[in-house]
Amino acid sequence: MGLLDRLKKPLQENELKKTFTTEENATMSDVIEYALKDITITREMAEKIGALSQGIHLISDAIASMPVYLYKRLESGEREKVLDNRTVLLNSENSPYSTAFNMKKALISDFLYYGNGYLDIDRNADNTIKYLHHIPYHDITCSSNGEQNKRKLVNTYTYWDYINADAFQVLNLVRNPKNDDLKGQGILQEGVKIISHANGFEDYTSNTLQNVFFAKAVIEKEGILSKLSRQSLDGVLKRFFSGTKNAGKVLILDDGMKLKTVALTPAEIELLNQKEFTIKDIARILKLQPSMLGVATGGMTYTNEAENQLVFLKNAIQPILILIQNTFNKYLLTEKEKLEGYFYEFSTQELLKMTPDKELKMWGQAVKDMVMVSNEARAKMNWNSIDGLDRPIINLGYGVLNEDGTITSHKDSKAPKEEPKEEGTAKGGESDDE
Length: 434
Known about the structure:
Layout: H1 3-8, H2 28-35, H3 43-47, H4 50-64, E1 68-73, E2 79-82, H5 85-91, H6 100-114, E3 116-123, E4 129-135, E5 140-144, E6 155-159, E7 162-165, E8 170-174, H7 187-190, H8 192-211, E9 216-220, H9 227-241, E10 258-262, H10 271-286, H11 302-332, H12 335-339, E11 342-346, H13 356-368, H14 374-380, E12 399-401, E13 407-409
Antiparallel strand pairs: 1-2, 1-11, 3-4, 3-8, 5-6, 6-7, 9-10, 12-13
Helix pairs in contact: 2-8, 4-6, 4-10, 8-10, 13-14
């Protein structure tokens, strides 16, 4: 009788629970599924899964390291950077007890795991923002007045010593809301099946490495051993070969016995294939390339790495950045500032930073194409400005389209001629009459 057949059979009251093993024709997936029956996946369990924890750190570290700036859209369509206290809170020091990097990373981690990330907006008496504090997911609750009509719906938060805090006091970053706009769905909920099997696989691997008999052995001996001798010999072999601490030991047998062993490779117990399959599943729910989580995909070159960075930004990072920007605009800007064209935006320049030679070539081409002046290009590479390089370099092969449809080439423009000297002016500046 297989494992799954026995699982369907109800246990009698006096029947002891039996430990099932793969020796009874059960696959590793069967064992994992049975072990995880009725187990709730928690963040602590998920963090023990190496690939998942690495993926969460990749995304949260990347976003936390990106600077976010406040801009104002001008009537001309251009934008100008605005510096105020909120920019410092989001990029440097969010409170006397923390840093902006740690705050943003904690916000994104809660957002990914649980579907919601919270910040306490500590305001001054004049309603300006004083500090931003991260609120752990389990330290806050959101409740409503139960009104079905969303126009009349009033949502309040309870956290720390705040009771029924107003919505403008709590920044709520929501991931994939389904029925409630303020309640998101995290990876622990959406990927529960994948995470369950990944967690079971980690436990299975750990137990296998600790307890498995690392040899399939055949004992050769002349004559017949008694039952007691066979049991004793079997116990000795298991104690000798089981567990990682016994690797490399030398076994000495008495009475002319010979031991022939066949190594039990990871492939034979499905570890390698299952591990790669699990990592690919985790990469899918995080929108990451499997190679970023350690799955070999062939030779890695700089070009491949650059393409992976671009895919990473486009698929995994950019949607979250847009959501965070919209959330910052919603909670950190006043209604007047929103109407006047203020908005937040992340700078992704560092994530896509190239090698120095490629960066120099790119900015140099921008100067040649008159997209920027030399000092602007130098500033992009963190170089000091040079006097006289604040004017664009003009390509004489280009022209200007006039309003009447004619084209004026830069070649037709001539430098102004020097003024001719007056007649009778001597070399020294005095006239001949003098």
